[in-house]
Structure formats: structure tokens, C-alpha cells
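Predict structure. Input: site-specific DNA-methyltransferase (adenine-specific), 500 residues.
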Amino acid sequence: MTPPRAKKAAQPPTTRARLQGVIKESRNIMRKDAGLNGELDRLPQLAWLLFLRAFDEVEQERALLDGAYRPAIEGRYRWSQWAEGQNHLTGEPLRDFVNDQLLPHLKELRGSGRAGDQRDTLAAIFKNVENRMMSGHLLKDLVDQLSRVDFANADDLHTMAHLYESMLKEMRDAAGDSGEFYTPRPLVRFITDRVDPQVGEVVMDPAMGTGGFLVEAFEHMLAQAATAKQREKVKGSIRGVEKKSMPFLLAEMNFLLHGVDDAKAVQTNALTSTVADMRRDGVDVILTNPPFGGEEEKGVQDNFPSGMRTAETVWLFLQAVMARLEKRNGRCGIVVPNSVLFDQGIGGRIKADLLSKFNLHTVLRLPNGVFAPYTLIPSNVLFFEKGKQADHIWFYEHPLPEGRKNYTKTKPMTHEEFGPCEAWWGGSSREGRVETDQAWKVAVADVVESGYNLDLRNPHRPDDLTHRPPAELVAELVDTEHELLALLEELQREIKDFSA
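Output follows.
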């Protein structure tokens, strides 16, 4: 085993401006390489190299604290050896080493098979990673830039995390319809604070994307931890699943930068387990935004009860979430499209199951455009917990800022917007709630009678096309068309009479 490199001398905290300069120069270098076309190539390339750089610092730190620690990446495959060591490479030898030795080695790492084993995690991360840079000299310039970031410095790490989040936003902006992986940070924080995960609880996101919910939950619980033992509990309480390779890589980088060292994250489809297995492998809290509009194959559908099988991904995720929470009396905040609220076929049966086992206490109706331009589908957040359903369900309509018709890149959703809802929420016990222009409650008996339709508009607003039930809108449109047809027929008769 290669001995740990001596700890480098402490550096003064790197200014944010200097770190921004490093990232800016790194991207300038990548723009010169013929193998990278646009941000969708450059940002993933930057992400996996940053990951190896940061992971090397983490491994050095662990080796210093534990003499028996065995690095997951050993020998000449460590960043400190091939990128910074005395025998560091450049030019074509560097490119050939990365392509022919480093990446194949990382893909072939084998661990214990248990969730959280770093060798298995690394193999999953790099399974589909390729070096797209064609110039070994430009690759060396990029590696040298990234070596200037001191991930061992806590201040640098904190600053780098914020810069990385800005890069994730740019990745979202460049990704077009791949933007399904990203949820606005203010919404992530609001949902996490309302569900309020506690030290000692296990938190899961079965569709974690780039890990936003899990990082937020980690920081939320860490703020409560008063002792070293509690902090260790928090570090071991994060679980995530992601089906696609690129967001999984970005999530692992996100975890590293935020100090989530022991996340049990796996790259797979969270729906491939049976409902029975999900119940046995339960968690305390789920925070998630599963993909909208996806379809699952029959083999996946067969993991669910016969009367509740559907190809639509969001319905399967809702059942999976319920199963994971059932035995541990868990609670959840989940983003869903409007279809979940108004569907009354299989969807109605799934909602009936939800209300029979859980207390759906709040439905947050989000304004149109929260996820634009990646999807224009109106969305909502369901908050529920294991236990007897209350006799009513609260609805809260989150409005757009005054004078705004939509969110944009230059005017995104902000944390401050949620202030009124936070004040209305009533704390962890949700006491003292009252009806307002944005809040109203609906009797569960009325929901059951309607066939479990939850797509209910704000009664305090005269008209709300965004959240009115589709059947109501269609009926109104048909009436309008009938009126228009009658007027046209009358006009036609008058023209005939005039011509006669």
C-alpha cells in the first residue's frame, strides 16, 4: 500500500475570487480542446476531475487519522501520484494514462457489495465516465489548475461547495429536458425544514439526482448535533438512489464538497425492489422529487400490487415511498405533478391507500413555472406522515411574487418567498393554522366522495386556471363552444334572410 503523502503546510484561506478564477481558467482551457463541445461536455469533465482531486484529499485525511485505513484508490492511480507527484505525467503520456489505465482501473474496482462501500461507489461513478479531452497538454493545464484548490482547507471547501452549486445550475440551464434532476434550492430547503429530519433518523431520496435534498437534510441535522457522537450519527444517516450515471457522479461530488463522507448512495433504479423488500428496508424520512412523465417496463411494474401497477413512474415512486416509511412511522415531502392530484383510476386507488395508512396533512400548490423551461407541468408538494388520517387536509397556494408571471434565470425563486408559509405552518406540531387568502382546508370525507380528487382550487380566488380541475375546464370549454356555435348559427340564418 502506498504510504500517505505528508500533510502539506496549511495555506491561508483561498478567496472566493481566487477560486472563481481557478474555475474560470479551467473552463477557458477546456474551451480550447476539440473533444469538448459545449457545457454539457465541459461541466461533466470538470466534475469527475474535481471529484478525484477532492477524494484524494479525503483519503489523505483519513489515512492520517487512522493508520490502518486502506485507501480506495491506491498507488499510481491516486491524484497525488499521477497529477502532482514527482513522476507526474504531461502531454500524450498523460492522456494515454488517463484513457487506458486510470479510468479502466476505477471502473473495475471491487468492494464488499454493501451499500456505501467506496470501491463499489467509485466503480459505479466511473462506469460511464470517459475523458473527452483530446489534447494531453490541455488536460495537464486543467489538472494543474484544479490542483490549486485546497480541499483540505475547510474554508476553501465551503467556498468550493457554493461555486459547485452555481455550476450545477449552469448544468441545469445547459441540459434542456435533462433538467428533471434539479429542484430549486429554496424549494429544497423549505421542504426539508418542514419535514424536519432529526439526529438519529435515516433520510432517503430514492431519486436523488445531484443530491440536493440529501445535502440539505445533512446540513439540517448537523446543525442540531451537539456532540461528536451525534455528528457521526448524522454522517451515517444519508441514503440515496439514482438511476442515471451523470447525476450520480454529480451527487457524489456534491456529497464530498459538503462533507457528507459516509452517504450510502447507489446507482440503480429504486423501483426494481419489490414492495415487500422496500417495507423491510425502511427509513424515517423521505425527501424527493421523482421524475415526471417517465414510464417503467413491465418487469418493474410487477414489483407492485396487481391492482396498482402502472407504467407511470411517479405513481410507482409514490407507492415505493409509502412502503419505505410504513414500518418506521416515517414522514415525507414529495414533489408531484398535477396528474397525481386529479387521477382517479389507479391513481385513485393509490391515494385511497395513502389516506388509509398515512396522514396527508398538507398539499402545497406551487405556482406555474417553478421548473420552467424544463417542464411547464404545474406541480405540488405532498406532506404526509405514518398514522391516522386527520378529518381534513390543508392546502396552501404559494403565489408568484407580486407583479411576476413566471420565474426566470435572472429572477429565480428565492428563500424569502416562503416566509408567509413558514409563519402559517404552525411549527413542528402544525398548531394554530387558520384559513387565509392562500390557505384553506378540505374535509377528507369530501375528498373520498369525489373519488380522491385532490386537484382543488383556492376558494378565496375568483378564478385560477392553473390549478382548476381539468374536467371543470373541459366542461366550461364545451359550454363556451356551444354558445359560440349557437351565435354562429344565428348569424348564418340572418345572412340567409338578408340575402333572400
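Residues 1-12, 176-181 have pLDDT under 50 and may be disordered.
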